[in-house]
Write a structure and sequence with these properties.
phosphoric diester hydrolase activity; about 50% helix; 30 helices; about 800 residues; elongated; hydrolase; Four Helix Bundle (Hemerythrin (Met), subunit A); alpha+beta; 4-stranded mixed β-sheet; EC 2.7.7.59; Hypothetical protein af1432; Beta Polymerase, domain 2; ACT-like_dom_sf
């Protein structure tokens, strides 16, 4: 254990001999650091190791720690791994074969005191072999450390017994200790963040750092992974050993230039380190470090999963059947805790498969399998331009998933798939921030902005534009010009490529151009000056929707920057600015019903039940039209029929003409082709007649998916991804469209059958749906209903909608 030395006065270890030994060691250390400035980092490590190992060997001979003496010095940590760094701890264990305490005290004092006196940071212990193995058995960190144990001096038999025993014990106990190993690793990752995306990364303990290589070494010792295979450059994540040496060299130089045993690379040392390693400037160093960190993190994440799956089954668990392949989307399944391709998937011809895999991973929190990533990287075709609607929807699902989006984007980026989708990403990948307030590299900051925006999705009428704005707001950085101006131009081009409607692409361009407007004005201008408010309103073209989305993006951007950037003070200033601008922009048009096509109006005149399915704008999109005599419950039953046939609703309009309801849906099947229109009509007719209770079936399925026994986030239940909203559901009451009518918008994370459940809630509240406009933006639903009711119906509507949405829903007035 590491500790300060006791007072040596009166101790048998204190004396001239120890003082001379300490003085010699201290002088040698100073000389090496002074004269070794021309040594490469690896050469300095070797020289530093030789210095200390030679001193320990000589000291051991001097004090009687020799072969056959029953005493041995064992090196742990960097000393054991042959990679001792300047200013690192010297980890030593004095092994003995049950020596009396008095004899051990004298030997230990003669070994420890000169090291303390030479200002060596010492981590030391005195143990028998059985005692050391007992500590390793009880302490995971100690067990991992002893896997690096190496004989330095003295009785080699004792050292060999410890080394062999520690490895044997590790292999035999790994099955029962794997959960603990995973837990401490995940806790460390959460605490220290990723090497690849921190502005000032922790080279030792960060995700993708040096400790992760030691973790993989330990899994290799346990014979659960192919550790040697990870060293090959052609492996999917790159060479683990090359990445490890990169981090080790940087950490060595960090010790040398800082004069301390630092693990966190502060920006102030970056230029000197990059010059010493002949890498370029600090930006080049950051990109090289990020690449190494990504490689190590990739191997650590896949290695842990491989190790868990490789553990032998015993007892009852050995009788359990192998994991099932659970379908998540077309061509995408979950198997053994990973997202993998279905057996009939065609990655060479299915351009949208990459994003379906990504969406499944982000929604469920289940990682994408390494083999799946490799196969997609090797064979996935280029996305058609413009992107199909479903591809854009899958991208929105990823961006709106919340924290799970980070790992999904990283997995795609590590294998080149993310840049293939977004070539502009290359300029901001691993780009260090120029502002010290930023915690992340620019690419990670963008992803973190999307994560924070997901929590605000239900606060805006267009969560899709908020998510895309988060993705694009800093896309112009790294090119030496005003990133807001350039980014606004790029947003137009990228929007067109991604399949965004031209007016929405123009909206995104304004969002990117002005994404710094609100915080700059709110914190630097007089908000009581009418010209300030008029200037902001004019800059935004008097668009209240742009103001609403910009307000949410400002909060998400600030929270993603670093600690303290978003505060109550800043939030209050921006709220005041937005409130004043809203007053100037008063007059926002309310939602209205879309007109029905003349063809459907002629069908309505027949007063029969009609169902038709026609191909949509892309391969997996279809339009479903259901026409029937109007009655209360028709909308919920129509939507329920679609949900029970695994048809997801992307958008819908509901209208009523002369006693006939016309419902138009844009849908996509979860798998394969949609059900035949004859089958949908049969079920729809049965539901309207009361012969088939489609709502009971849907409500039962929904309660199983969302009730107390529902799967947790990151799990998969009944083959359907389980999502958990990061934004609370919201009920927004808008001004009435006409006397006797109320307009209510419901914003919530989408789930199968949600539209049907909302429509049933309105019906149970005793109101009739006059018209509806339904949209699903990625994973967020924004459904507007115009209901025929008086103002006093609001309480009943709120109650029944809250029953569907849950108690966390917010009620607001627009």
């Amino acid at each position: 254990m590491k500790q300060d030395p006791p007072d040596p006065s009166g101790s048998s270890g204190a004396g001239t001999e120890n003082a001379r030994a300490a003085s010699d060691l201290a002088a040698a250390r100073r000389q090496l650091l002074s004269e070794g400035s021309g040594l490469h980092a690896a050469e300095l490590r070797h020289a530093w190791l030789d210095l200390h190992e030679s001193w320990l060997t000589a000291k051991a001979d001097e004090i009687g720690i020799t072969d056959g003496s029953g005493l041995a010095i064992v090196g742990i940590g960097g000393l054991g791994r042959h990679e001792l760094l300047p200013y690192s701890d010297l980890d030593l264990m004095l092994l003995h074969d049950d020596k009396p305490a008095e004899a051990l005290q004298g030997v230990a004092d003669k070994l420890w005191y000169p090291l303390w006196d030479a200002n060596v940071r010492l981590d030391h212990s005195v143990r028998t072999v059985s005692g050391a193995l007992g500590v390793a058995n009880a302490d995971m960190i100690a067990a991992l450390g002893m896997l690096d144990a190496r004989h330095i001096a003295g009785d080699a038999r004792l050292s060999e017994e410890l080394i062999a025993g520690a490895r044997r014990q590790w292999r035999s106990a790994i099955r029962s200790r794997m959960n603990e190993l995973v837990d401490i690793t995940q806790a460390r990752w959460e605490r220290c963040g990723r090497i690849a995306q921190r502005a000032e990364p922790d080279l030792k303990s960060g995700r993708g750092g040096l400790r992760d290589v030691q973790l993989l070494d330990a899994l290799g010792v346990a014979q659960l992974i192919d550790r040697h295979g990870m060293a090959r450059p052609e492996t999917p994540g790159g060479s683990l050993d090359d990445a490890y040496l990169t981090l080790l060299d940087v950490r060595t130089e960090l010790h040398r230039v800082s004069g301390r045993g630092r693990d966190q690379l502060l920006a102030q040392y970056a230029d000197e380190i990059s010059a010493a390693l002949h890498i370029g400037d600090r930006f080049d160093l950051a990109r090289k470090l990020s690449g190494a960190g990504r490689t190590i993190a990739y191997h650590a994440e896949t290695g842990l999963r491989t190790a868990e799956n490789a553990l032998p089954r015993r007892g009852v668990s050995a009788l359990v059947r192998r994991p099932k392949r659970r379908p998540l989307d077309e061509g995408v399944v979950e198997y053994a805790g990973e997202i993998v391709l279905a057996r009939d998937a065609s990655p060479e011809t299915d351009a949208g498969l990459v994003l379906r895999v990504a969406a499944a991973s982000a929604e469920t929190g289940v990682p994408i399998g390494a083999a799946t990533l490799s196969r997609l990287a090797a064979g996935a075709p280029e996305m058609p331009i413009p992107w199909p609607r479903e591809a854009l929807d899958d991208l929105l699902v990823v961006l709106s998933a919340g924290p799970t989006a980070v790992a999904t984007v990283e997995a795609l980026d590590r294998t080149g798939l993310w840049e293939r989708l977004l070539p502009e990403w290359a300029a901001i990948r691993d780009l260090p921030p120029r502002d010290v307030a930023h915690k992340w590299t620019v690419d990670r900051h963008v992803v973190e902005t999307a994560v924070n925006a997901a929590a605000l999705a239900t606060r805006v009428a267009r969560p899709d534009l908020l998510a895309l704005g988060a993705l694009l707001h800093d896309i112009g950085k790294g090119r030496g010009v005003d990133h807001s101006v350039l980014g606004a131009q790029m947003a137009i081009e990228m929007g067109a490529r991604l399949g965004v409607a031209p007016n929405d692409a123009a909206f995104l361009s304004k969002l990117v151009r002005h994404h710094l407007l609100l915080p700059v004005v709110a914190t630097r201008s007089d908000l009581n000056d009418p010209k300030t408010i008029e200037g902001v309103s004019e800059a935004l073209g008097g668009d209240p929707l742009l103001l609403e989305v910009l307000r949410a993006l400002t909060e998400a951007d600030s929270k993603a920057t670093g600690p303290g950037v978003w505060s109550d003070w800043k939030a209050s200033l921006i709220e005041d600015l937005v409130r004043r601008c809203r007053l100037v922009m008063a007059g926002e048009p309310l939602p209205q019903a879309d007109p029905a096509a003349p063809h459907y109006l002629s069908l309505a005149a027949d007063h029969g039940v009609h169902v038709e399915i026609t191909p949509g704008d892309s391969a997996r999109m279809y339009q479903v039209v259901m026409v029937a005599p109007d009655q209360r419950g028709l909308v919920s039953k129509a939507a329920a029929v679609l949900a029970l046939n695994s048809l997801g609703v992307h958008s819908a309009t509901v209208n009523s003409y002369e006693g006939v309801a016309i419902t138009e849906f844009v849908v996509s099947p979860h798998f394969g082709s949609p059900a035949a229109p004859e089958l949908l009509r049969q079920q729809f007719v049965g539901a309207l007649a009361g012969d088939i209770d489609v709502m009971a079936a849907l409500e039962k399925r929904d309660s199983e998916a969302t009730g107390p026994g529902a799967a947790r986030a990151g799990e998969v239940q009944a083959g359907v991804p389980v999502t958990r909203s990061t934004a609370p559901p919201r009920i927004v009451w808008l001004d009435p469209a006409a006397d006797g009518h109320l307009v209510v918008e419901v914003r919530a994370t989408d789930r199968p059958g949600l539209l049907a459940l909302l429509a049933r809630a309105l019906e149970r509240a005793g109101v009739d749906i006059g018209w509806a406009k339904v949209n699903t933006f990625g994973s967020t639903a924004a459904d507007v209903f115009c209901v025929e009711a008086m103002d006093d119906a609001r309480a009943a509507v709120d109650k029944h909608l809250l029953d569907v949405l849950g108690g966390q829903a917010e009620v607001a007035f627009g």
